[in-house]
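Support case: user asked for a sample of complex input and structure output to validate their parser. Sending the pair below.
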Amino acid sequence: MNGKDEFEVENRTSDPMSISSGWQFAAAANLTNESVGFVSTGNPSVVSNGDLGVSSCPSTSMSNLFTSTLLNHHTESQNSGFCTTFNEQNSIVASNTTVVDGEGLNSLRSNGDTRTLGMDWNQQNPWMKGIFSGNVPGIFPANLSQLPADSAFIERAARFSCFNSGVFGAPPTGPFGISDSIGIHSGSGFGRQEVISRNGASKDVSLPMELEAKEKSPSKNEKDSEMSKDRTKQGCVGESGNDSDEAGFSGGQEELGTLGGAITEPSTEGLCFKKRKRGEQNVGLGQVKETPQQINETAKNGAFSQQKGDQNPSSTTNKPAGKQGKQDSQPSDAPKEEYIHVRARRGQATNSHSLAERVRREKISERMRLLQDLVPGCSKVTGKAVMLDEIINYVQSLQRQVEFLSMKLATVNPRLDFNIEELLAKEIIQSKAGPSLFGFPPDLPVPYLPQHPSHHGLIPPCLPNMGSSPDLLRRTINSQLTSLVGGFKEPVQLPNRWENELHNVVPMNFDVTAPSSGQDVDGSTPQCNTRAEL
Amino acid sequence: MASKSGITLMNSTSSRLRLARTFLRSFSKIKSQTSATTTLSPSSPHLKRQSRRIKMAAYSSMARVAGPRRAWARALLFKLHTRPTHRTLMNTRRGGSTTTPPSSRSDNQVGKLRRLLPGGDRMDVCTLLEETANYIHCLSTQVKVMKAISDHHF
């Protein structure tokens, strides 16, 4: 920033001269001073930014109820102040041709940037205007000297120079005091700008994440906004801590890196702007610390409408506020570290792979819980490995039991087996009435009672109604059910069954229906039986 | 997941009866066939074959009751279908119809579980656990039914 400071100081000192003598000094400065050359490379985009600033005025957040000219001036000042800084970064790395080639991109970008920065940069207007009033006398002559063929540029520059001399250049207060303020605020502003560009770059990557965050609860949104604030502040601190030309150099590289995706950037940054706006409101509501800045912002807006001619005093008055905000951001980094941590975790989680992994893990633990209920003695066990061991043992024991029982059943006297199904059916039902008569497990016979009508009725959802409803309802359902169920099974017996009590009827009915239903299923699935007997 | 567990709970009552019915049918059929062919004095190989058939009937009835939506049921039925071709080969080694060819991952418990569960060698862990839960449910039901039958007969 030292070079920039020097350059601005030089511009500042050259301010009256440029007003009076116009372009000659700038040409001389272009010859002598390297930093003015930077500005000259940035100039095309500055001019185009001025145009875009005019066109995009209603869409930006400059809804300060200004008149149109004021609005134009405001945005122009912002744009130019902003773009002088970041075009300087560009020009450090890039040659003149790249800047001229990327003029459209730069304009697009700056368009998006002004949108995104609308709220944030209001508080930084003063120093921008300081830069603007300091730079512009140098800028436009340089522009004209470099691009003399472009008549449109000349026209614009003429307009700007008029405007500049009329509005901004008129009250040149003490040059050194203003340059002081410029030095401080350009540092912070540079950092901010860095952060914004970084945000834009990262938003390209993590845009769905941001959208998802937007869809989530307001508390999360607030947290999100705080975290984005963190990012800006971190960038601010980091850049101001660097405070060297290298920072500018890397910044320029970053800018160039993001320049490739600059066409897509305005849309994403439009979204970013929405979020940032909301985040600003949230933070302003939630955090007292931010409120002075907002107050300054609003006061600045009011002051801007009042002091058309002299923004420089307002810039000097607003300078401590911005500084204070910067100082506030430094101690607040420590408690916000955990938010950054959460952010990182959330960033991990929104990665598709880790998201799928998390879902998978949740599913697995859910299945484990389900298995815990099924496997006896597994509810006390903690740890997945032990639980899996238990499950494996249980499955193995069950399979062995099946094997053993099949061997046991093979030794059954085959003479009994002609009516075994009827016998078994009868006795299973009877064992329900008299529990564990035949060595049934105690939980086995009990479910037979409610399930038995369900098997006959073939419409399980109707059964709770049947069981709980009074007789009238039961008969109405009964009539429907006979028509429904009668097609499947014996229609003659169904009225009897529904008229009587369920508990009494079930065994009786089962006696009669068991063979028939068995024949039904036999007839319907003969291949299954053959398969089973293979 | 709550709905699924609810469905399994609702089906658990009816599935038990269906399982008992299906198994009893096939069991009686096996018994009638064996009684038709060999009326008296079941020899040792005959008993072995019959026990194997009963076990296969038990597993197939289990799989049929569980329905085609279950992967283990599908794998089991497929195995029971394709069983007769290599019956002699498989019978000499292991009688169990649930044995699958051992997977490559046999070191951990998940690999063990894969080998235990029919068709488990081509499931992911999540599906494997879910299918295991259902398989355990059906298997325990089957065991209860078979136990009831054997208790009735003895």
